[in-house]
Amino acid sequence: MSFAEDPRVQEAKGMPMSEVVHRLGIGRLVKTGGELVGPCPLCGGKDRFGINLHSNLFQCRKCDIAGGDQIALVMQVQNMGFPDALKWLCGDAPANIDPEEIKRRRARAAAEEARQREDQDRYRRRAIEDAKTIWKRADGTPENLISEYLACRGISADMLPVLPRALRLLKDHPYVKKIGRELETCHRGPCMIAAVQAPSGMLEAVHQTWISADPPHGKATIIYKDTGMPAKLVRGSKKGGAIRLHTPRGADTLIMGEGIETTLTALAADPVPGAAYWVGVDLGNMAGKMQKLPGKRYSGIPDINDDAAFIPPAWVRHLIFIQDGDSETASTRAKLESGLRRAMAHRPGLRAQIVHAGEGVDLNDVLNSKPEEEDHGNPHD
User: Going by C-beta distance under 8 Å and a sequence separation of 6 or more, which residues neighbour residue 246?
Assistant: First the structure.
């Protein structure tokens, strides 16, 4: 009998993921919406590991363990092969479960799944409303402080004389983050607010960058209870969206970087006259989900069923992704290739290209040296 025919497989995949987590002894995970988030059981990366209780997908953003079901989680955490992981979960034979008990379990699972979807939808709606409120409160004429912040990042007012309308300023904005089960205000201060627009054009998220209140007004240093915190947060629903920095009339080329500063650097250099410049917010949004292929840690092949990732508008005939060099090269490259292949699948005839800033740096780091761009061509080549 093949593993595909083994009834234990269905038994294992029918177990609640929370029960498997408990049996594995994975501690300090906190339920946030429909996910369990916390330290990775392998590398220990703080708040880098997450399990979606709806889809059973899990991933660590530090060591890149990832999978999609209970058996895969046991295989990776326990360092087991498939047969041993299946035996660990179910024993040598499938459990002899009463058919009525199976029906009850399935009904409970369906009810729990529906409740989780409802919770996720409610949280998403609340986050989007928060983002809209933040955007409305922000100042639409933020030139002084934001210009000084960008100058600290090598983008002078001469290089970018007019700030994009997608950027605003809040002079005293709270840094609120969920720590454990509580929302904590870890910092207050000036904050650059960027509008993240959904494919429809509606604002559904804001990207927040806290700026130092003291000259020279670089990125704020945020420390909460002796722990350094990132100076950037997103509030709302960013999936499939982008920060639209510059979209000239008649553009057919879209240049996209992961971060605001990287993309503004490209805009200041303007290597493709008439191009649009948008920010993808993060690699996950630009790439979407990748297929898992045997023998490949990073396939670079998109899961086309993922409908939440970024897809360029129909007017885009040439899509250029900027690859930062200050992140892990293999995974970054594969994610960008996945995103471009997804875009080409949805937009037949689209030309796709990756421009690399160089090893160990992002494009903003090399602004003043102006290196030659590397044209990697179509990722299918």
Answer: 164, 267, 276, 277
216-274 pLDDT per residue, tens: 999 999 999 888 999 999 999 999 999 999 999 999 999 999 999 999 999 999 889 99
Long-range contacts of 96-101 (CB under 8 A, 24+ apart): 97/11
Confirm if 298 and 290 have CB atoms less than 8 A apart.
Answer: yes
Q: Could you say which DSSP state residue 146 is in?
A: H
Q: Decide if 85 contacts 6 (C-beta within 8 A).
A: no
Burial class (CB in 10 A: 0-12, 13-18, 19+), 43: middle
Per-residue pLDDT tens for 78-91? 888 899 999 999 88
The CATH architecture of the domain made up of 239-381 is: 3-Layer(aba) Sandwich (3.40)
Q: Enter the CATH code of domain 3-90.
A: 3.90.580.10
CA 17 to chain CA mean position, Å: 23
What is the rounded CA–CA span in Å between residue 166 and residue 196? Answer: 8
pTM exceeds 0.85 for this model: no
Distance CA 272, CA 256 (A): 12
Angle, in degrees to the nearest 10, between helices 17-24 and 70-78: 10
Cβ(148)–Cβ(191) below 8 Å: no
Pairing of strands 167-179, 222-224: unpaired
Per-domain residue ranges of the chain: 3-90, 127-235, 239-381
